[in-house]
Structure formats: structure tokens, C-alpha cells
Inverse folding.
């Protein structure tokens, strides 16, 4: 029985040896063929252009992304029209003119006063010479139906110009 086991083991080993020699033969053939083939050419690297520095010369130009300060134009330096930027502002100059409403008038000792309602619900008494609105508007006259004023506005060229405006009396039903 021992001899039979040895015989079976020897036959099994020969069978395995005969199958093992053909294993991966296609792979070995591919590697041999690849070695015989001529290698591909790698194109040369492109020529690197030398760096050319850019000189930025716009440091002295006005930055379009920063708000400009109101500066007196060249014509103002020669005595042209311009607002007094150093005077103390009055309470009604904090509001745009279109947000103010004339609601009445009163007369005391021969002088005409106007009553103006502001967006803060305050009621203000103004007379000729007072200022209204955010465009340096100075009151030049008051009647029972309106307040006449002159505003000083800056045009696109930076020059100051005078502009006539009026604040009309608001009717009773419009105020409710």
C-alpha cells in the first residue's frame, strides 16, 4: 500500500510539472516582443520664455473703487461758487429734501415762518436763511403755499452750481 501511495504521488507530480511549463507563456511572448520593438521618441520640452516684468504705473491715478471726497474745484479757488463746508449743520440738513414736508406757516412780529415735518416725526420752525436738505439748500423765501430755496450742487465736472427748488405745502388729506 505504501508503494501505491508513492506511485500516485509521483504521477501527480509529473502531471503538475507538465502543466506548469506552459503557464503564462503568452505573457512571456509579449515581453519578448516588446523588448525587440524600437522605443518611442519623447518630444523635447518646449522652450521656456524668459520672464518680462510689468511696470505698474497707476499708483498716482484715482482709484475708481474708493469714494471721492468733495473737494473744492479749481474754479472755487479763484472765488467761484461753493458751499461753506466749515459751518455748523442744521437739523433739517440730515434729511433729503423729498422726505421733508411743509405743513403750515405762521407769522410773528411781521416775519413769516414755515412749519416743516421731518421723517423723524419732528416738527421744525424755519425762516429765511435756514438750511434744508442735503444739497446745501438755503431758504430764500416763504409764502403761505411754499418754501423757496437755492441749493448748491456739484456737476459732473466738479464745479458748483446753484439750483432753485421749492417745497410745497402738503394738503390736509395728503398728510393723513
Amino acid at each position: 500500500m505504501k508503494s501505491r501511495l508513492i506511485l500516485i504521488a509521483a504521477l501527480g507530480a509529473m502531471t503538475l510539472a507538465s502543466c506548469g511549463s506552459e503557464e503564462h507563456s503568452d505573457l512571456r511572448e509579449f515581453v519578448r516582443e516588446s523588448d525587440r520593438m524600437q522605443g518611442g521618441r519623447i518630444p523635447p520640452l518646449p522652450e521656456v520664455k524668459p520672464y518680462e516684468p510689468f511696470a505698474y504705473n497707476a499708483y498716482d491715478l484715482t482709484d475708481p473703487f474708493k469714494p471721492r471726497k468733495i473737494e473744492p474745484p479749481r474754479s472755487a479757488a479763484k472765488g467761484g461758487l461753493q458751499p461753506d463746508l466749515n459751518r455748523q449743520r442744521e437739523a433739517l440738513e440730515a434729511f433729503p429734501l423729498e422726505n421733508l414736508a411743509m405743513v403750515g406757516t405762521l407769522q410773528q412780529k411781521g416775519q413769516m415762518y414755515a412749519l416743516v415735518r421731518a421723517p423723524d416725526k419732528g416738527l421744525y420752525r424755519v425762516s429765511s436763511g435756514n438750511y434744508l436738505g442735503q444739497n446745501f439748500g438755503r431758504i430764500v423765501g416763504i409764502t403761505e403755499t411754499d418754501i423757496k430755496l437755492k441749493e448748491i450742487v456739484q456737476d459732473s465736472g466738479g464745479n458748483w452750481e446753484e439750483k432753485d427748488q421749492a417745497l410745497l405745502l402738503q394738503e390736509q388729506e395728503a398728510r393723513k
About this structure: The two ends are 124 Å apart (CA to CA). The domain at 93-171 is CATH 2.30.30.830 (SH3 type barrels.). The longest helix spans residues 2-20. Strands lie at 101-108, 111-117, 123-126, 131-132, 137-142, 146-154, 160-168.
